[in-house]
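Hi U.,

Before I forget, here's the chain from the pilot set. I'm dumping it here mostly so it's searchable later in email.
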Amino acid sequence: MQKYSTARVVLAGAIFAGLAAAQSEPGQCGEGDPADAVVTGSAPTYPAYAPLDLKQKYLYSFNEMAAPARWIGFALHAAMDQAQKSPSAWGEGPDSFGVRLASRFGRSFMRENIAFGVRALDGEDPRYFVLGRGSRMARTKYAFMGAFMTRRDDGGSMPAYSRFVANLAMPMIAQMWRPEKFSLERGFRAGAGGIGLEFGSNLWQEFAPDLKQRVKQALHHGR
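Structure:
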């Protein structure tokens, strides 16, 4: 039961962090302003813009790891882990769900803090800037490139080193509290999955405004 008592402490701290994130100012570090970005060659280029300072970058990272919406994702993932009894050593009871929920938050906490550390050193801007024009294929390619490339603080573009490092390092660090034996194959698979999720997030940000507009039009015509 000692491990479950420890998990309760971790979970309580995680919930406190989530509540604190809900109180942060969304305008400081939320979605970037839609940019009239264009794709030239293999990397997107951008017009002049206002970069985030170091505090804003950390607030962005904090929002990514502990915003209320993130907790819904943590709970869903923990519920799936609970249903699959993964890992089996954590059991099946309510305490087990708490351990799995705390583990999901811990993974996010480590990934975002590692990413912030890299961005603080190399001047990456973590935001995704919506293209918002062109064909669906062009915008999908732009969102895909956005998973691998990012904007620099000086307005140019560069490889998203923070995402690569964070997504590859996080599974290895998470193994410190997970009971199953670690393998490099599983670690790299988890890292690749993180990049895939980044692409999915970019797609949602790119096309969500279009979907919302269509819903509004449908509701208007339905009156």
